[in-house]
Amino acid sequence: MARKRKIEGQVKQQKSIPVEVIAEDVTSHPLCLHGPTLLFSSEKGRFFSCSLCRKKQDCTVHIEEDDWKKENVRKLNEKYYNLIPKLDKAAAWKNFNEIKLKHATSRAYCDTCKELYIVAQSKKHLKDHKVIMSLTDEQLANPTTWMPPLENDQREAQYLFSKKAVSTVLGILKNNNISNILCVGTPSIHEAAQAHSDFDSLLLDYDTRHHLFNPPNKFLWYNMFNDYLFNGNEDEKILKKFFKSSKDKGLCIVIDPPFGGRVEPLVQTIKDLSAAYRKVCEGEGLLPVIWAFPYFSEPYIRNIAPEIKMHDYQVEYQNHKKFQKGGRKVGSPVRFFTNLPFNTIDLSNDSNYKQCDKCKYWVSVSNAHCNKCKECTSKDGTTYKHCNSCRRCVKPTYEHCKTCGRCCHVKHECGTVVESQSCYKCNEKGHKQSQCPQVEEKVQKKKKRKNA
């Protein structure tokens, strides 16, 4: 959330410049070490930049759109074709099988070197290296249960679903007669599916460590923000083969991006994967999707992909203190966004949820049905209240301010507009969606139709 700052003395207020991602085919874009860049647009102009890194020091590629038309700039960028690494998955799988033949006490993994090895055959791992010894068969089959997670929140935050969340996902898929899962950034779902006779899965993840524990046809090194397969044609063939095997079994994308990720490229990736599947198996529209993302991203997702709706299920993570049971007073802020029917999400075994007789699906026990809004309106885990002036339900901590003409937090400065906030409807600053002229125009048109 953006902060309001007071201007003191000669200190100037720094305004955040809104940046838009242009969702389009990226195959003709400049490259960086993370695959094709994305095209961004701001008040200063349009430019290509890394799809994965938000900090310039993490990835320095930044090319103005007009400069990309210059031949010398294109030639300079060609170096990335050779700089982008590839994985030798066959060698890694051969190594895995050799290690698995050894006794558990002879198996080790060095997270510093990202290497799975036989203890007697390697002495290069120093005392200050992060080494995990004596790996059991169970641990080799489920590396997410012990492997240190990647924790760079800017690009690869790796929070893993709790066992309850994993079980909920598999239950939803079973209720929808879906057997195959495209696990995009969800290794815990992949491991559970591989151990379950009713499911098959393919893991697409940026974390290259997974290729040390998976067969070559079960892991693809992947960037979900630009739909890029690092191993190129080799992995494209594996993906197409998995699509073919899913034709009669049903396929769902289960995706869990870093929470700070932009919605636009993620929706584009879901569309691209769906289009790739439809090319192989025919059909139209988006594939079934279960997308874990914070509830406050709902307006962005709803505007870009209205068919993907937010369910009230609170997604818990095993390695995030605040996003698990007892972490926050109102529970985890992460929800499942899906285009699957809500009535197939059965939470009858969880006492934290109730079935709404009017909505006909399960919601949090704190979520009250509003007869005026005709839905269970809570977004954040609290019980919302209806404001007749705003004609919608709002947070319990909000009160209607006559000066501002909207519901705000009790402690607020009238007339203050946070610089980073803009309307979800028209993207203009200075008002929210509820006060958008476009929304008001629609309301007036409806009134005219009723009176006619």
TrEMBL record:
This is Zinc finger CCHC domain-containing protein 4. One of its GO terms (cellular component) is cytoplasm. Residues 431-452 are annotated as: Disordered. Transmembrane segments: none annotated. The keyword RNA-binding does not apply. GO terms for molecular function: nucleic acid binding; rRNA (adenine-N6-)-methyltransferase activity; zinc ion binding. The keyword Transferase applies. It is found in: Cytoplasm. Residues 351-434 form the CTCHY-type domain. Its main location: cytoplasm. SMART domains: ZnF_C2HC. Keywords: Cytoplasm, Metal-binding, Methyltransferase, Nucleus, Transferase, Zinc, Zinc-finger. Residues 423-438 form the CCHC-type domain. SUPFAM superfamilies: Retrovirus zinc finger-like domains. It comes from Papilio xuthus (Asian swallowtail butterfly).
